[in-house]
């Protein structure tokens, strides 16, 4: 151990300094967005007010007026929440069965589920528009967005839950069975307390992915079900751009998610690499 | 109820839902790719309804295949995906190794580093292309302008001024132009996905065999040879996974391409399909099938890799 703990000058001074510089560079665009959100639109484009200006909350106060922010935000909250909820309702029993009663087919089913995630969305864009517009009549409804968000995240949800459930020792479940606990009791009294953490972080991650989704939510909505992704994408025009108010609405759209994300860094690795990196 | 029935029953809803989600739209795309199907046609109104009578065989495929725009889109897709992957992996490795040791404030550094990954793609693109990269109002424009002013002032100096007159005039770069719009997409996506690579490599570094490292240090191995011979092989699998996951995600880049320049100079395969979908559904579907094939080639490798660790 002695050999490793010999700290060189590099280790003591240079490494932390460099790490901090890199971290600040990466965070800078986000900082700049938050910083600009406190400038008026006029100040935001003037070089003389680049760093020193009179901060104002005007952009946040007028967010509803300028962008109708809350309508989009509420749509985002509703669609992401229900999509996550339904993904769990469908995913938990499935992952449970796969983890505790694996058959020879389980691995293949999991692989196949993952492969549905890899289908390029653009390839099925028109059929989806056609089906939902002309055939089912659910184009631009929250219901449609909930279903689509649920389906695109279902493989990841099942996969994450599966890796969590697999870690639970089977002996505990077996012991419960011996004591005559019913299947429902088994789930309620043994599995849920043990798997609670895993289910919660899966839900959190699923919610983040739903919130940030920018292909289907933009392409399958016009007004009624439009989410924050659509709001931002609609205000991309360079001409007559209002940096102050755009920063405010962007900050409001990503702020809560970044904070949520900080709490599930570890789960993110598992969720995104399908348990292949530990 | 037998032992097998309940587990099967529990899996059924998920399997059926995903089966429908995969088969129905993809089946329709496959069908449309073999027929003449356009949304508006005054000359041939019969083509505006999808029907087996408008069978075109491989016609849509050869139309797409022989279209210069298609190859340009493939080129742009591959160029952007490859550049992003190379940059994120190199940056990710460097940063992960940098923050792997303990130092004051490491927790905060981690939190700051991971943040870009949670920014929604639309905000990422709007933020970068307008507030940072814009040649007039963005920070790039302001920085270049400021630098030019300083150089101009220095040129006025006696003696030294002659030296500074050799300094080339620099102009801010417009990142919405045909030649540069792909670069803009690469910059913003690299910014967003480097944290992902860092996070994965860091997780993996934590499971590195420390005893082996100590032995190497006692044997007098320097930092580079430690990295080269121990750390890099250990990171082999995580690197492969980062590469493949990113390949799959970035092959469907859309929001960034749309916001930066609406496909001018950075039109990739998904964007081309989107454009074709405004009228020529047959061709769009054929291009879609090509996209599926492209994604599948990568997916097969990824699934194999993930599958290995599945049951242990």
Can you put this structure into words, describing what you see?
The complex is a heterodimer of chains A (278) and B (312). Helix content of chain A is 74%, strand content 0%. Chain A is built from 15 helices and no strands. Chain A has helices spanning 2-5, 9-36, 41-44, 58-61, 63-67, 69-100, 106-117, 125-135, 142-167, 170-178, 183-212, 216-219, 228-234, 243-262, 265-273. Chain A starts with a helix and ends in a 5-residue tail after the last helix. Chain B is 69% helix and 0% strand. The mean pLDDT of chain B is 86. Chain B starts with a helix and ends with a helix. By secondary structure, chain B is mainly α. In chain B, helix 5 runs parallel beside helix 12 (255-261). Chain B has a domain at 69-133 and 173-311: Orthogonal Bundle (MetI-like fold). At the A-B interface, helix 2, helix 6, helix 7, helix 8 and helix 9 of A face helix 1, helix 4, helix 5, helix 6 and helix 8 of B.
Q: Characteristics of this structure?
A:
A: 278 residues, mainly alpha, 15 helices, B: 312 residues, MetI-like fold
Radius of gyration of chain B: 26 Å
Average residue-wise pLDDT of chain B: 86
Number of separate strands of chain A: 0
Mean pLDDT of chain A: 84
Stretches with pLDDT under 50, minimum 5 residues of chain A: 1-6
**Helix tally of chain B?**
14
Order of helices and strands of chain B: HHHHHHHHHHHHHH
CATH fold label of the domain at 69-133 and 173-311 in chain B? MetI-like fold
Based on helices, strands and strand pairing, what is the structural class of chain A? mainly alpha
Shape of chain B: flat
Contiguous helical run count of chain A: 15
* Backbone shape of chain A: globular
From the N-terminal CA to the C-terminal CA of chain A, the straight-line distance is 25 Å
**Element order of chain A: H for helix, E for strand:** HHHHHHHHHHHHHHH
Biggest sheet architecture of chain B: none
Going by CATH, the homologous superfamily of the domain at 69-133 and 173-311 in chain B would be MetI-like
């Amino acid at each position: 151990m002695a050999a490793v703990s010999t700290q060189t000058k590099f280790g003591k001074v240079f490494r932390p300094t460099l790490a901090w510089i890199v971290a600040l560079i990466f965070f800078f665009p986000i900082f700049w967005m938050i910083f600009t959100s406190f400038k008026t639109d006029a100040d935001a484009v003037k070089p003389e007010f680049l760093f020193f200006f009179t901060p104002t909350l005007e952009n946040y106060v007028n967010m509803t007026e300028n962008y109708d922010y809350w309508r989009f935000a509420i749509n985002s909250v509703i669609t992401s929440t229900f999509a996550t909820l339904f993904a769990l309702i469908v995913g938990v029993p499935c992952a449970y069965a796969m983890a505790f009663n694996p058959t020879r087919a389980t691995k293949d089913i999991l692989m196949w589920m993952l492969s549905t995630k890899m289908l390029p969305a653009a390839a099925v864009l028109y059929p989806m528009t056609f089906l939902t517009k002309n055939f089912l009549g659910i184009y631009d409804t929250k219901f449609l967005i909930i279903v689509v968000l649920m389906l695109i995240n279902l493989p990841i949800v099942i996969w994450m839950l599966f890796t969590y459930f697999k870690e639970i020792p089977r002996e505990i479940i077996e012991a419960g069975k011996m004591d005559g606990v019913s299947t429902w009791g088994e789930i309620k009294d043994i599995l849920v307390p043990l798997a609670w953490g895993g289910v919660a972080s899966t839900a959190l991650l699923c919610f983040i992915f739903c919130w940030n989704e920018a292909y289907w939510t933009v392409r399958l909505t016009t007004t009624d079900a439009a989410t924050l992704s659509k709001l931002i994408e609609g205000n991309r025009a360079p001409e007559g751009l209002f940096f102050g108010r755009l920063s405010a609405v962007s900050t409001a759209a990503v702020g809560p998610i970044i904070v949520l994300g900080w709490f599930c860094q570890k789960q993110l690795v598992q969720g995104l690499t399908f348990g292949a990196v530990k | 109820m037998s032992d097998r029935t309940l587990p099967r029953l529990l899996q059924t809803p998920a399997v059926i839902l995903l089966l429908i989600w995969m088969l129905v739209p993809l089946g329709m795309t496959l069908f449309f790719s073999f027929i003449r199907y356009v949304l508006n046609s005054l000359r041939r109104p019969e083509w505006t309804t999808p029907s087996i009578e408008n069978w075109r065989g491989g016609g849509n495929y050869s139309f797409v295949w022989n279209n210069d725009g298609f190859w340009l889109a493939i080129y742009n897709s591959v160029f952007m995906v490859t550049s992003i992957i190379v940059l994120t992996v190199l940056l990710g490795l460097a940063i992960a190794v940098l923050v792997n040791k303990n130092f004051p404030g490491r927790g905060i550094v981690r939190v700051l580093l991971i943040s870009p990954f949670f920014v929604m793609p639309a905000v990422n693109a709007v933020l970068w292309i307008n507030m940072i990269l814009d040649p007039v109002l963005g920070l790039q424009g302001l920085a270049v302008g400021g630098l030019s002013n300083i150089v101009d002032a220095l040129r006025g100096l006696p003696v030294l001024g002659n030296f500074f007159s050799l300094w080339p005039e620099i102009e801010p770069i417009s990142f919405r132009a045909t030649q540069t719009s792909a670069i803009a997409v690469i910059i913003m996506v690299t910014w967003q996905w480097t944290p992902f690579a860092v996070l994965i490599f860091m997780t993996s570094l934590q499971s590195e065999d420390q005893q082996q490292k100590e032995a190497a240090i006692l044997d007098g191995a320097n930092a580079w040879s430690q990295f080269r011979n121990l750390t890099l092989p250990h990171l082999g699998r995580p690197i492969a996974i980062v590469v493949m996951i990113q390949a799959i995600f970035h092959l469907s880049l859309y929001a960034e391409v749309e916001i930066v320049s609406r496909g001018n100079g950075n039109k990739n395969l998904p964007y081309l399909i989107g454009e074709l979908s405004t009228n020529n559904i047959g061709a769009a579907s054929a291009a879609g099938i090509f996209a599926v094939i492209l994604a599948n080639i990568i997916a097969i490798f990824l699934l194999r890799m993930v599958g290995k660790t599945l049951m242990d």
